[in-house]
Design brief:
This protein is of the alpha/beta class. It is 45% helix and 10% strand. The chain contains seven helices and six strands; from the N terminus they run E-E-H-H-E-H-E-H-E-H-H-E-H. One of its GO terms (biological process) is tRNA wobble position uridine thiolation.
């Protein structure tokens, strides 16, 4: 058989025994002959979902261009079902939500909190169907409420944009699977057991005391959690679900590490 290689000394013409150019079906190499370089595009089988074997993957469909990991292996439907299974397995295996719980989902309107809201709602919907199908109906179905933390009193965003966002979130909540879920607007200044106007003034004064941006963000995060916890206790909610992505958690860990090292260095000096 002929090889058609630039370094070949056999004097062949680059043809195989069946008369076709062999180099067209063989991968080429770089100038050093080390790493093979493919002459063809990615095989179509690598663009098909590994689960359903029918639809294109998210990356191949162009929805997630350059997406790695599961986005390059699953189509959108299978990716969602796979992610929901992981979420449900984590919740049930660690007893995070019991049938007697009343769950408050913190909803900001962003992608992470929206995913957590839909998954909790889907779990409740399936629990409700199992409850209706069972004869004894011994286990109740956990309740779900949604809370949006309103930070208008300390935010530079115009009020009409907040109002528009709240209306959009109400529409999203109304389209969730039954049973009906209550949507609550929790104001940050509600952490103070005072009149709303007095609470806003106290919160503004507290924010103005802090000069650095990072410190203000940390304080707002703390006040946001206090407002959610206070509302949950006062309204009979037993669990709070936060839709934080791994990137946000990683940023929080890095920030806490840097602050600890900085304070530790100051203490030594």
């Amino acid at each position: 058989m002929a090889c058609n290689s630039a370094g070949c000394k056999s004097g062949c013409d680059g043809y195989s025994e069946d008369g076709e150019k062999e180099h067209e079906s063989r991968p080429t190499t770089d100038c050093n002959g080390d790493a093979p370089v493919s002459n063809s595009t990615e095989p179509s089988r690598n663009r098909i979902c590994v689960k359903c074997k029918t639809n294109e993957t998210i990356a191949a469909s162009g929805v997630g261009a350059g997406l790695r990991g599961d986005g390059g292996r699953f189509c959108a439907d299978c990716f969602k079902s796979n992610l929901y299974w992981k979420f449900r397995f984590s919740v049930t295996s660690n007893d995070m939500i019991s049938p007697a719980d009343n769950v408050l989902v913190a909803f900001s309107g962003g992608p992470s909190s929206r995913v957590s809201l839909h998954f909790v709602s889907e779990m409740q919907d399936k629990a409700q169907k199992n409850f209706e199908a069972s004869r004894d109906r011994a286990l109740p179905v956990f309740g779900v409420g949604i809370a949006f933390v309103d930070e208008q009193s300390v935010s530079a965003i115009p009020h009409h944009e907040f109002d528009k966002a709240i209306e959009q979130m109400k529409l999203i909540v109304s389209n969730l699977a039954p049973p009906l879920k209550q949507f609550h607007v929790v104001r940050t200044e509600s952490v103070y057991s005072l009149k709303p106007a007095d609470g806003r003034e106290r919160l503004k004064k507290l924010i103005d005391v802090i000069t650095d941006t990072t410190g203000k963000e940390d304080l707002l995060e703390h006040m946001r959690m206090l407002a959610l916890q206070k509302f949950a206790i006062e309204n009979g909610y037993t669990k709070i679900v936060l839709g934080k992505c791994t990137s946000r958690i990683a940023c929080h860990v890095l920030e806490a590490t840097v602050k600890f090292l900085s304070n530790h260095t100051r203490a030594k000096s």
